Amino acid sequence: MTFPFEQLMVAGVAIPLAAFVVLAFVGSRLGKPWSGYVACAALGITTVLAAAMLFNWYGLTAAQQHELSTAAMENSYLWAHLGNVPVQIGVKLDGLGVIMFFMVSFVSFCIFVFSLGYMAHDSDQIDGVSQFHRFFTFLCLFVFSMLGLVAVNNLLAIFIFWELVGVCSYLLIGFYFHKRSASNAAIKAFVVNRFGDFGFMIGLMMVFTYLGVLTIDGAAEVFAGAFNGTLPQGHRAYSLLETGPLGVTVATWMGICLFCGAVGKSAQFPLHVWLPDAMEGPTPVSALIHAATMVAAGVYLVARIFLLLTPQAQMVVAVIGCITLALAAVIAVVQTDIKRVLAYSTISQLGYMIFGMGVGAWIGALFHLLTHAFFKALLFLGSGQVIEGCHHEQDIRNMGGLRKKMPVTCWTFFVAVLAIAGVGIPGVYVGATKIGLGGFFSKDEILAVAYFRTHEVDVREATGHGAPAHGDQPSKESADHRQHGQTAMMGSADGAVTAATETDAARVTNLAQKYPRWLFWVPLAIAYVTPFYMMRCWWLTFMGKPRNQHVYDHAHESPLMYVPLAVLAVGVVVSSYLWFRPMVAAAAPTGLLVAAIDGEHGAGMHAVHAALVPIVGFAFVVGFAIAIAIYYRGLAVGERFATMLRPLHTLAVRKFYFDEVYGFVVVGGGLALAGLSRLFDIFVIDLIVNLSAKVTTLVAWFSGWVLDLWGVDGAVNAMAQGTLRVASDIRQFHTGKVRNYVMYAAGGAALAALVIIFAFGRA
Amino acid sequence: MFTVTLQHYLALGAVVFCLGALTMMVKRNAIGVLIGVELLLNAANINLVAFNRYAAPGALDGQLAAIFVIVLAAAEAALLIAILVNFYNNLITVDVDQGDRLKG
Question: Which of A256, A343, A381, A511 is the most buried (most CB within 10 A)?
Answer without folding.
Answer: A381
